[in-house]
Amino acid sequence: MTLTPSPADPLSTLDPWLHELQDWIACESPSADTAAVTRMMELAARRAQAKGLRTESIQLAGTPAPALLVSNRAAGDDRAGILIIGHLDTVHPAGTLARNGWRCVDDRLYGPGIYDMKAGVYLALEALGELQAAGGRTALPVDMLLVPDEEIGSIHSRTLTEDWARRSRYGLVCEPARARTGYCVTARKGTGMLRVVAHGRPSHAGVQHDKGRSAIREMAHQVLAIEAMTDYAQGVTVSVGLIEGGTTRNVVPARCEIFADFRVPDQARGDALLARMRALSPRDADVTLEMTAEMNRPPMEPSDATLALLARAQACASQAGWTLGAAPMTGGGSDANFAAAAGLATLDGLGPDGDGAHTLDEYILVSTLAQRLAFWRLLLQSLD
Ligand SMILES: [Zn+2]
User: What is the pTM of this model?
Assistant: First the structure.
């Protein structure tokens, strides 16, 4: 699994502490391939154990891929501590690395899943491991929770993350820093999903056209009504991303189904949007609508405790030689949404600087890693 650097391989010039990150990228771990994600968890566990950290594999309901808990907690220490949250699944199917390869161009290191978010987990684990290996206790116990399913909505790990968030004092999330600014994230929109199925009546499209009730025609009206719920000024977006209906050309379609994604900046707007969605009614009285509308991730709204945590993180960053800003609210969700909604002071986007999440051009900026590693060390040491 280790990539053997050839003399011409630019990766061979990387800092030694980064060498194992190559193995992490080579261990491809798409969310749906639970065996692959499990291998990735084992790789991270071995790295943690080598640094003297305690690890525990946690089985989740509904998936064979486990979560991994890494901790520097002394036996009997049950204080609320620092919770580091990360995920080790990626959006890239197996074989992406073979097709796309590694590239190191100037300061940019490209690889599937490197920016979102294996390098982020690697940084945090490296900092915690260095502190442990040096015998330096942190003021608070540190627990690191790595989940296998974030890219598919954390459907199996959500309650585990919420449980840990409720019993922790601070939350630090390893998602990538915002592209082009390197800023962290204190606010994320809530994300939700709408599914609508229209049930009409089939008929011969030529012989008995008038007997049919077209589910596609009905859905066309609904799609326009749903998309019209987007309100940029309010920070609300609704997008119908998938539509499927009908059986064949000459049958008036009896069924049509859509899936829509929606994002809201706060719970109140989320509740209002859900109410509007649930009030949708068919134009054609002979067609029925079946509907599921729900929030998947609650909005991450910064609390006073989050802003106080941000100030402490900013002090650590400047001590490490760089400036940490807070990005404006982002439309992307993460496990930080669950942690913050559970009442935990949470900072997200503490992973590496780079760009291209969820694309084949994902990269991190190598020159920023040493400063970010120093930042993590300082932050883990100083939070109390
Ligand atoms: Zn991510």
Answer: 0.88
